Amino acid sequence: MDDKENVRVGAAIRRRRRGLSLTLAVVAGRSGLSVPFLSQVENERARPSRASLERVADALGTTAVELLCAADAQRTVEVVRADHSAEAPGIRRLVKGRHQLHALEFSGDPNESGEFQHRNDELLYVTEGAVEVEAEGRAYRLGRGDTLFLSGGVRHRWRAAVADTRVLVVAVAEHIKAESE
């Protein structure tokens, strides 16, 4: 691959291979590349040439362009300052951009909320105050320090139960198709 490309294609290759339930040995046989080399690529210890990437893509029934589009962005370190203005009243995005991790901070007083259903897993963590959550036909009251895990697809609603409540919501981003390891 061109050194100017700052992507980590190994994770995309691994996701595609596992999604097809293929072993490294099968992909190696189809591509003519060695198992150790493919393992190094998947673990980001080696970068495939353009020709090698095309051979891997063919072995996985896709294209090099598709693998590059599905690749992870270059490792990023980003600070979001506490004084960063909220994008909507009471909501602050804690991770900027399009990443696998999605995190929001909600703050404010009791109000009604709509019903949610997300494709991927989600975790609610109450940093201050209390929230009331309805999920899978059950009601939960969470206080400071409590967490609630919701697997992908669970319909739920939640609202602040007391004034000055702060909730951290962390989720696998909706644009990611979460797959079991």
Structural class: alpha+beta
* Helix content bin: 10-25%
Beta-strand content bin: 25-35%
The poorly predicted ranges are: 1-6
Q: What is the chain-wise order of helices and strands?
A: EHHHHHEEEEEEEEE
Strand element count: 10
Largest sheet: number of strands, sense, barrel closure: 5 strands, antiparallel
Task: Tell me the Rg in angstroms.
Answer: 21 Å
The averaged pLDDT comes out at 84
Distance between the termini: 27 Å
Instruction: Assign an overall shape.
Output: elongated
Question: What oligomeric state do these chains adopt?
Answer: single chain
Count of helices?
A: 5
Strand line-up in the sheet with most strands:
3-4-10-5-8
Descriptive overview:
The chain is of the alpha+beta class and about 180 residues long. The chain is about 25% helix and about 30% strand. The chain has helices at about 10-20, 25-30, 35-40, 50-60, 65-70; strands at about 5-10, 70-75, 90-95, 100-110, 120-130, 130-135, 140-145, 145-150, 155-160, 165-170. Helix 2 crosses helix 4. The two termini are about 25 Å apart.
